[in-house]
Amino acid sequence: MGEIRSTCPYCGVGCGVLLRATATGVEVRGDPDHPANRGRLCSKGAALAETVGPEGRLLAPMIGERAADWDEALDLVAARFRRTIADHGPDAVAFYVSGQCLTEDYYVANKLMKGFIGSANIDTNSRLCMASAVAGHRRAFGTDTVPGLYEDFELADVVVLVGSNMAWCHPVLFQRLMAARAARGTRVVVIDPRRTPTCDSADLHLPIAPGGDAALFNLALAEAARRGLLDRDRLRNIEGVEAALAAARATDPGLTGLGPQQLAAFFDLWLGAEKVVTAWSMGINQSDTGTDKVNAILNLHLATGRIGKPGAGPFSLTGQPNAMGGREVGGLSNMLACHLNIEDAAHRAAVRGFWAAPALAERPGLKAVDLFRAVGDGRIKALWIMCTNPVVSMPQADRVAQAIAGCDFVVVSDMMAETDTMRLAHVRLPAAGWGEKDGTVTNSERRISRQRPFRAPPGQARADWWQMAQVARRMGFAGFDWDHPAQIFAEHAALSGVAGALGSDFDISDHAGITRAGYDALAPFVWPANAHRRGGRFFADGRFHHPDGRARMIAVAPQAVAGPMILNTGRVRDHWHTMSRTGLSPRLNQHMAEPYLEVHPDDARRLGLEPDGLARVAGQGRAALLRVLVSDRVAPGQPFAPIHWTGETAAQGRIGAVVEGAADPVSGQPALKSGAVAVAPF
Ligand code: SF4
Predict the structure, then answer these.
(1) N or C: which end of the chain has fewer CB within 10 A?
(2) What is the mean pLDDT of residues 348-370?
(3) Where is the 4Fe-4S Mo/W bis-MGD-type domain (predicted)?
(4) Does ligand 1 come within 6 angstroms of the Cβ of 42?
(5) In angstroms, what CA-CA distances link 111 with 363, 495, 504?
(6) Interaxial angle between packed helices 368-376 and 397-405, expressed in degrees from 0 to 180 and rounded to the nearest 10
(7) Quick check: CB of 44 below 6 Å from ligand 1?
(8) Which of 7, 13, 129, 444 is the pocket-test mutation for ligand 1 (most atoms within 8 Å of CB)?
(9) Does 8 contact ligand 1 (Cβ within 6 A)?
(10) How far away, in angstroms, is 41 Cα from ligand 1 center?
(11) Which of 297, 339, 348 has its CA nearest to residue 134?
């Protein structure tokens, strides 16, 4: 068999890979023809072949501890969901899915829940990742639109990275940026409380105070106005300018934790260049004021006209491989398919008509934190979790575990037999994994790429979309009769044409008639893709997606983050999420072998923490024991711990249990990135 083109399943860079099946597994190399990576791979992508072994796979449906066949398991799931809906109404059931789902999986889950069950209680772990970016885009632009492209990182004169350890978390895009920097002297600014590896390649590192990002961008906006650098033509097409400027001028520079020289250096760089990209990631989104932080960034780009142009624009770096695809199908509980608005009657009518949906949800459903709260207090009585491990990844993870353990009926679809969430399921369904699944994903620059299988799933494992379609049919619903993901993709593309006619930015209707052969051969493309508009930058013409065509600037009042000890969290270079895949690679495990607490020397002295000793990090009535790493890369009072390690005991280092994770009131995204903790030697 020749090489198969597919896509890396880890981060939102969305690198193309070439796969060659071998007698013992697969060989993986970067796809030189994929526009995202042009042959490059990072350590995680390069180790993919080490993570596709059969170890730990769930090979058959399980009802309790008993193996079952698919018919019995699917009949049971359909019957329990049907009975729960009949007894308690559609809002008594919920789905919790994942940015690891392929777009076709996501589409079917949303169609089933929002169109046929009649509830919008479907949320996704993308809520933990991108929800504040989505909410910020929608407030500013009218739609969840990422305006720019990856090439903007190579065309910019200044690239500002906010709350993003890009060197470790989006490595291949960082490599592209570094290559551009070497070739044309791109100036790089990193805004991060920690001196991360990304800072080592920066011209300017601003060690921002926790929560100080919105204040910094407000101050830059006020400074732009003072220097006469606002784009008067653009401002005529923006609402809310004066209120946003007033809030900016009222901002206390002390909230940034930066000195006058640092602020001046930032203003000179940002405002001194026409071509500026501001890229952000979890350090902005995972905050209880994340949406305001996003809008503070968007305000500055809008007001200075640095948007929609080659090398200029705000850029949200997606965490997961398909967080964007999930957003396209309306994977969040407050969205409808194809970037349509669930609160808009005309949008609902269009989707209802297209799906011939008997019970289209009329209002937004529960967002992730509230969804698990509703599971915990018994309002949700049947729950289907797919492709994710919320017992580890949610904030206040112990409460989530208790909630799931107390739920009347829990279905978990996963490729692994023994995840922390799997152990709490009444029905476990074996899912196809990467290398076995067939579908599409969308990366951070709106590029849709195919994931193609190089082997059949082991045992009885099946694709997630197939599982849901089978349950839908057993519940008596029409419109779930696909037998290949190409048909789902075509249906989604056709619906996007309906959405495009209503003003949605997401329109891939050129592909509505795609055949199986066309789908198999589909090359990566950036949306929009329709007869009138093909992929490129949005907003070049100065028109936005609010009904009046105008953008909105938002008045942002920055808030300080208080507490003597604020823990920052994040990823390490070689692990992904809860390590269910990267933990299988000996090579990847070598980089950081155990959970750790990076702590400033002053804190170590003050608290009596010994290098390589153990620290007890406590919060929310729970604790994690972490190896002490003394380092001046973190600021005093701001230790850092990675998120990946799991397990039920403190000794297993599960940091999710100690982070409060209060939700942003606009986006519902939990503040997983930082939280007040107590630290002591153990
Ligand atoms: Fe995979 Fe992201 Fe690395 Fe690319 S940068 S190889 S998508 S983990």
Answers:
(1) N
(2) 97
(3) 1-56
(4) yes
(5) 15, 11, 18
(6) 50
(7) yes
(8) 13
(9) yes
(10) 6
(11) 339
Q: How confident is the model at residue 392 (pLDDT cuts 50, 70, 90)?
A: confident
The residues, ordered by sequence, that sit 6+ positions from 112 with a Cβ below 8 Å of its Cβ are 95, 468, 471, 472, 477, 480
Nearest CA to ligand 1 atom 2: 11
> How open is the CA angle 494-495-496, to the nearest 5 degrees?
90
**How is residue 57 annotated by DSSP?**
B
Whole-model pTM: value is 0.95
The number of residues in the chain equals 682
3-state DSSP call for residue 235?
helix
Question: Mind listing the domains of the chain with CATH numbers?
Answer: 4-51 (2.20.25.90), 64-128+324-432+461-478 (3.40.50.740), 131-317 (3.40.228.10), 566-681 (2.40.40.20)
For 526, the 3-state DSSP assignment is strand
Count of H helices and E strands in the chain? 23, 27
* Per-residue pLDDT tens digits for 454-508: 999 999 999 999 999 999 999 999 999 999 999 999 999 999 999 999 989 999 9
* Cα-to-centroid distance, 146 and ligand 1 (Å): 20
Whether residue 169 has its Cβ less than 6 Å from ligand 1? no
| Separation of CA 19 and ligand 1 centre (Å) | 15
> Which whole-number Å values give the CA distances from 373 to 370, 377, 397, in the listed order?
5, 6, 11
